[in-house]
Amino acid sequence: MTKPLRPVRGPAPDAPLFRDAMARVASAVHVVTTIGPEGRVGLTATAVASVSDSPPTVLVCIARPSRTLAVIEASGVFCINTLPGDGADLAEIFASRRGIDGEARFTEGDWGTLTTGAPALREAVAAFDCRLTAVHDIASHRILIGEVVGLGGAGREPAETTSLIYRKRRFESV
Ligand SMILES: Cc1cc2nc3c(=O)[nH]c(=O)nc-3n(C[C@H](O)[C@H](O)[C@H](O)COP(=O)(O)O)c2cc1C
Fold this sequence. Notes:
By secondary structure, the chain is mainly β. The protein has helices at residues 15-23, 67-75, 88-94; strands at residues 27-28, 30-36, 39-45, 48-53, 56-63, 77-82, 111-113, 119-121, 126-138, 141-152, 164-167, 170-173.
């Protein structure tokens, strides 16, 4: 752990304050998918970041109880599908807010595959098809590092491409 430049005073902010601060930050919304013995699975995630372009590498933070997490770790592959502006329904479905699970989550959207076999959304702003290369446990979450082995999405005219963001606990198209 690096020594802080200035001493940190006072107690650490509690979880609700942290969540309120984070809620003010606009985030792109993604559906992270994989394929397992019982078919396709996926979850909605905003905790996604680019790590490096050589080799192309990304990360996603997933809560340890997630059912999708276990399937990704078994398959060793996942695809990060960045949602277009009209993807709020997909985001709700893959966040378990519609009571739909497993394969049935893929009824909405035009899904195919790229290199790994993980589901890739044709109308995604971008789809990053990944091979799982490392896993780190931090607090309540597991950080998955993926090497990008295929790119997809943008199956629409560029002029029509909008992005879905999550801000102040609401979805917005930008
Ligand atoms: C806008 C939004 C962003 C989310 N981001 C994450 C995330 O980054 N990581 C995570 O583990 N869960 C995240 N979730 C919660 C998961 O989508 C949710 O727990 C889901 O039900 C997990 O599904 P599963 O158990 O089928 O994998 C988010 C939910 C919403 C609505």
